[in-house]
Design goal:
Radius of gyration: 19 Å
Number of strands: 2
Helix content: 10-25%
Oligomer: single chain
Structural class: alpha+beta
Strand order of the largest sheet: 1-2
Number of helices: 2
Largest sheet: 2 strands, antiparallel
Distance between the termini: 35 Å
Strand content: 5-15%
Order of helices and strands: EHEH
Length: 68
């Protein structure tokens, strides 16, 4: 049995411009409208790796980025 391929997730940034009277009204209308702008943030993996510590509950001070 073949293992499924691991898909690398990407951060998609989608921008929509909606005219509404309230936030809840905008959320209702947003479902029906297409995106005005959309792109992939390719640097998010680098940012996520810098922000996350290697273990939950522990913080790590990094003096040299080359060590990682």
């Amino acid at each position: 049995m073949k293992k499924p391929k691991k898909v690398i997730e990407k951060r998609f940034i989608v921008r929509k411009y909606i005219m509404a009277v309230s936030a809840s009204d905008a959320l209702k209308k947003e479902i029906k409208h297409k995106a005005d702008e959309c792109w992939v943030d390719e640097k998010w993996i680098e940012q996520a790796n810098k922000d996350n510590a290697p273990a939950i509950g522990f913080s790590v001070e990094r003096d040299n980025e080359d060590d990682w």
